[in-house]
Amino acid sequence: MDRRRFLAGTAAIVVLPFDSAQATPEAMAAAIRKVVGSSPVREGRVSLDLPPLVENGSTVPLVVSVESPMTEADYIKAIHVFNEKNPQPGVFTARLGPRNGRAVVGTRIKLGDSQKIVAIAETSGGQFWSASADVIVTLAACLEEST
Amino acid sequence: MKVLRLGIGLAIVFAASWALAQGIVDKGVTDKRRSGTQDMGEALQKMQDDDTANPGMLFVQLGGQLWGKAAGAAGKSCADCHGGAASMKGVAARYPAIPKGTDAPVDLEGRINLCRTANQQADSFPPESRELLALAAYVAHQSRGLPIAPPDDPRLAPFRTRGQDLWKIRQGQLNLSCAICHDDNAGRKLAGVTIPEAHPTGYPIYRLEWQTLGSLKRRLRNCLAGIRAEPYAYDAAEYVMLDLFLMDRAKGMTLESPAVRP
Amino acid sequence: MANVLVNAPKTAKRGSIVEIKALILHPMETGFRPGPNGRIIPRNIIERFTATWNGTEIFDMEMSPAIAANPFVSFFAVASESGTVGLRWTGDEGFVVEERVSIAVE
User: Fold this and answer.
1) Is the whole model's pTM more than 0.90, yes or no?
2) Number of separate domains in chain C
3) Interface pTM, i.e. ipTM
């Protein structure tokens, strides 16, 4: 397996700024559409906290926070996170409510490659807000032989 | 042919580094040694420092459960003979060591397996098995914060010297020694990764690449495979010799097991 | 043997918001990775994490293979009344682990 890239980095780590015009890969777009239906998704209210440069893609800390009063009348009922390049577009769906007090969820995810991550928050009123982040995964040296 | 091409690339990177290295031979009074922890980003340092965020602590917990569990024909648990965790304080800081009545050093995992076979009369744990790593992590955790303190046993000297020779010898298809990377080029980048000084301060470590806990032996096997050298067999004495050398080189540095590493 | 580490305050002021963090030992095998013999290692993941406060569900997370091994989850909860926070992980191969912590609200 050539993924064993010890020394591959002598070819330098290429840091690719994501082109904002770049189309979201279809699988992710389709997965998002399944969640939001025909509702518009607006940017804002959500913040997605990920290290921009990741030392190893197998355990990447991620925190999603959404601005919301989290009252009975107005709360965030779900947070969905998607990725572009892993085998499946869905990373997790968290369901919350007023009893959480704050619409903040943290976990750790796997990223096989540098890519865009999208978080979408669904309000109790049925609105969708989103944020995205680009993560660059650098290569690890001295990896294990895979065989 | 890929290896060859990459090897040449590496030679170029190092040529540049060596030019830089010439001027900086500073034997200051202050301790300039750096644990691998200091080479990690903030997110990983935080993960290591928070006991409920460091996945290595799950293994420490498991080790604590195993510590109290009777096993083998003797039907004894580690705790039956050793008592509580406090009995293991400082132990990891002085391994490898030569067990009583023998004349060759064993590493911490080796010592645990001796108790498994001789004292519990059970099968020894396979290398890198979850149980062995968990017990090693549990024992090593009791020395967290203590300085590395190799024993004052003159019988260890020849083994340590042999470890130092292994450290300096060029090997593998890339014809590199440990020293070329970890002494001469520590702190520089290789494939986007900072080459650490290779101090064994955090073992067993939770390595993100492995997505699990692993021993120093496994870490050394990764470096050997990296330079395209055939890793020594799992039970080879070479690992213990390198461990002895590395512990001596890191003497006085603080143990931080279980550390997190990328 | 279940291996779980939970970080939650033992006491909290009524109405304050507390953070609960949980870590569990689990390989989160993706089902996309070849094993040493070249064959795909079957998927083995935690699919769901649920939290209750005195029995009422307050948080739930559906996980995918993209969640890192030994999953970590953090979330918040309003300390409404003294009681037990129940945490439950379920997944492939009949995996079920439950853990409880108590929080005294004053």
Assistant:
1) no
2) 1
3) 0.93
